[in-house]
Write a structure and sequence with these properties.
393 residues; 3-stranded antiparallel beta sheet; 7-stranded mixed beta sheet; 13% strand; single chain; Aspartate Aminotransferase, domain 2; 2 domains; 37% helix
């Protein structure tokens, strides 16, 4: 058999991300095949869901084929329809917006907090109208939003809180895991996340009254879950739904990652701290900004980024990384300035903090088995860019 060609650019010395195998991923996949069950909702699916529920104290977890699917299930469970309004940050991935747009909602983008890059809680209440139904928060870089304030606003106005926790699995806000504070939430297991399965995600349901319907949506709109539990003698079509649940191969790979979650987290935190400790001198000289972690939060080391002082510096430093064959990259183009955003009536200048920070941010390579030597190469490029030498660390 011919080996599968690696389609990654061969001229890159340090990649932004690398998928990894840390334990029994391949063994578990073989076991799934031998068990004779490759379709979804088998033994490995059950183990993954139970792991999430037990570890993160979630009322119910359902694996999905992607975080996108989990977010779309959130929108369905919120009964979003035409005329409803959803408040959300513009600085996020398109899936956050698409989930609600597909149900006919009007997207109400608000600005972000300059320190955390999360939705600015102070901007939420002025954006509420009689048509507002949902506040969707995004925990950027695995750092929690100001959930006390946001939940209080939601309670005051009888709104639903959805957590896009794609980047935030294993992070906490005041001792509670992100993804378990809102009504529903979504996790991601995309290959760029901390725990991976290629694609993959999970829907987290924190309102027990939504669990039965969530299972129906998950099973293509049928009550097959009741059939499997012996609660009905046959199953049938009872609601809308789709093929949201992943195959057992995906779940088998993911469960091996969960078994090594402590080691994965430890390694990522070590690498994250390595960057912080060696770049802190540049922040002290006001040359860059490093990630800010509020006292109320613990983070999962999902991402390490720097923020430059100007857009030109960001472009020039990205070019310097490219010259050195290092794949450091920008992040989101704000959704309100995208072609789709502009088609909704948004324009540049409406969310100044989002627009400014998004054009000055660079994400540095960070993955499970990145080495200190590789990180030093990244750090050296940054110091060289500012014509500085690294001092004793």
């Amino acid at each position: 058999m011919q080996p599968i060609k690696n389609d990654k650019p061969t001229d890159i010395k340090i990649h932004f991300n690398k998928p990894f195998i840390v334990g029994k991923e391949l063994y578990n996949i073989a076991q799934a095949v031998l068990n004779g069950r490759l379709a979804g909702n088998g033994e490995f699916t059950r183990r993954c869901q139970e792991y999430i529920e037990k570890t993160y104290r979630a009322k119910k977890a359902l694996l999905t084929t992607s975080c996108t699917d989990a977010l779309e299930m959130c929108a369905l469970l919120c009964n979003i329809g035409p005329g409803d309004e959803v408040i959300l940050p513009s600085y996020t991935f398109v899936s956050t917006a698409n989930a609600f747009l597909l149900r006919g909602a009007k997207l109400v983008f608000v600005d972000i907090n300059a320190k955390t890059l999360n939705i600015d809680a102070k901007k939420i209440e002025p954006a509420i109208t009689p048509r507002t139904k949902v506040i969707c928060v995004v925990h950027y870089a695995g750092v929690g939003c100001e959930m006390d304030s946001i939940l209080a606003i939601a309670k005051k106005h009888s709104l639903i809180v959805v957590e896009d926790a794609a980047q935030a699995m294993n992070s906490q806000y005041k001792g509670q895991y992100l993804g378990t504070l809102g009504t529903v939430a979504a996790y991601s297991f995309h290959e760029t996340k901390n725990f991976i399965s290629g694609e993959g995600g999970a829907l987290i349901i924190n309102d027990e009254s939504l669990i039965e319907r969530a299972e129906i949506l998950w099973e293509k709109g049928t009550n097959r879950g009741k059939f499997y539990r012996g609660e009905v003698d046959k199953y049938t079509w009872v609601d809308i739904g789709s093929s949201f649940l992943p195959s057992e191969l995906t779940a088998a790979f993911l469960y091996a990652q969960f078994e090594m979650a402590e080691e994965i987290t430890k390694r990522r935190l070590t690498s994250w701290s390595y960057y912080r400790d060696r770049l802190r001198a540049l922040e002290e000289k006001s040359l860059v900004r490093l990630p800010f972690i509020p006292e109320t939060c613990t983070h999962n080391a999902h991402m390490f980024f720097i923020i430059l002082n100007t857009e030109k510096e960001q472009k020039d430093l990205l070019a310097r990384f490219k010259e050195n064959k290092i794949l450091a990259i920008f992040h989101y183009i704000p959704l309100h300035t995208s072609p789709m955003g502009k088609s909704m009536g948004y324009r540049e200048g409406q969310l100044p903090v989002t627009e400014s920070l998004s054009m000055r941010l660079i994400r540095l390579p960070l993955y499970f088995d990145i080495t200190p030597a590789e990180q030093d190469s990244v750090i050296d490029v940054i110091y060289s860019f500012f014509n500085l030498k690294r001092t004793g660390e």
